[in-house]
Amino acid sequence: MSAETRTAVELAGALASGETTSVEVTQAHLDRIAEVDGAVHAFLHVDAEGALRDAAASDARRAAGQTWSALDGLPIAVKDVLATRGLPTTCGSRILEGWVPPYDATVVARLRGAGLPILGKTNMDEFAMGSSTEHSAYGPTRNPWDLDRIPGGSGGGSAAAVAAYETPLAIGTDTGGSIRQPGAVTGTVGVKPTYGGVSRYGLVALANSLDQAGPVTRTVLDAALLHEVIGGHDPLDSTSIDQPVPALVEAARRGADGDLTGVRIGVVTELGGEGYQAGVLARFEESVELMTKAGAEVVEVSCPHFVHALATYYLILPAEASSNLARFDAMRYGLRVTPEAGADGGQPSAEDVMRATREAGFGDEVKRRIILGTYALSSGYYDAYYGQAQKVRTLVTRDFEAAFERADVLVSPTAPTTAFKLGEKVDDPLAMYLNDLATIPANLSGVPGISVPSGLADEDGLPAGVQILAPAMADDRVYRVGAALEALLAQEWGDALLAQAPPLPPAAEGAHR
Amino acid sequence: MPESPQHAITREEVAHLADLARIDLSDAELDHLAPQLSVILESIASIQGVAGDDVPPTSHALPLTNVYRDDVVRPGLTAEEALAGAPEVEQQRFKVPRILGDEQ
Prior knowledge:
heterodimer; A: alpha/beta; Amidase signature (AS) enzymes; eleven-stranded mixed β-sheet; 11 strands; globular; B: mainly alpha; Histone, subunit A; 3 helices; 2 strands; about 30% helix
């Protein structure tokens, strides 16, 4: 079995037994990147030299009997929205082209501290605004299941890299579904932790009150291992939760026996039906049936305000984003475009430079959301839009609280459809926004969620996902139930879902970046 | 709720908002963005009236207030590191274009 198709847990075992080395494993993944990333374009930047150097250091540590974590020596890819010292960080935007951060995000520092070699930075919709990775200024990522289709977004690069066996592990960020929806459409696992459960320090902010970094992997247990590495309190993030992270690996291992006796599972009425593809719903219903047979008590729960979650999100997110992105002012870092003359005909002023730089450096979707957010925050509209959205956010949270009185976890399809074709929705913002219909409520209320592959839709043979949500700080529940569902489905399929993906054409379109 | 006109956003409004947001939108972008934004606003305006006056607003998922740290000196970036990404540097400072108008 080749190194790159093994799970992180299997690779960790092979490293521990001395069967292989971190340098071998890292090189195998770098080779795989060289082979397929011309076609997939999951990476914006590959750091072969740095990854191999860190891999060699890991091997030396292991030889000396001093590993730093269960994942020491396992390569990982990081979404390009997290600051990496010495490695370019663009957020998929021209405005940060060539920027090399002078510091590490806490998540990145923890990966380094746990001994994981960083393979590179993954592609994303510009500033994480999108559901298809088509809004990257550096070109789209393609879905390994069908290269003419989107890999989801905004973290399509991380999901595609994992699905294409370019890396066993990746980090994503989820503001409205950007970890979970790419997971669903690429047949991989993605977890949005409880808000505040993983540090946001060094995560370039899209919407502070919604953003959360988390694991992108091929199995639930791998995600739990990675989550334990990156999670926990960080004094550098004032919204970080100062409580111990629940025992996630233990929960995933327990769930893997497939027994759900006594677990109350709530099917959310509002997250299904109209607007959801038939094949996605069929796989979801099968998953619920399997969990019922495994002993779960399934109840239907209504969350009536979830129908307003999408509108609420598209007021809160642009409002926060428009103020966050004000930092890109061409003065301290990033692009600077100087117009020939200022608006007054004289030498260009700082403000003239700012306007020209932001015009040249931001793409369409970023401009749309900045304008929308500026509008929602304007005097005269604030109460009607942003103020109202904040109130509906309270109602969404109350719906969750009521639902979690009746159920331990809530389930729904992760995304309403399978992967659509590149270009299909790129200039239809509303159609694009609908991809996050089912994932957004969790971000509004800060609760954790996982997407687990549920099978292939009958119509198109493409992957779909089931989302499992739990109360804040009960991330262990999404791992337990997620691992159980994964095990039950694997029994049905006889293998992992990704084993059914078609092989990728080797080195089709030349060298990767 | 009355029909759409109240949520429509004109080309002039988009130009004004772009000015507030410090983005020089081209004419073509203004033509393109105004109708798109109207469609989005039309759709999100549906939340008006959903929550009554008695519902408190939520600004944040966590009910945290006043998170303090000890006021002690800790290592930070050096001046060179902080300036490393700057478009222009002079005498260990960020160099910026003129801030005031000629008449100011």
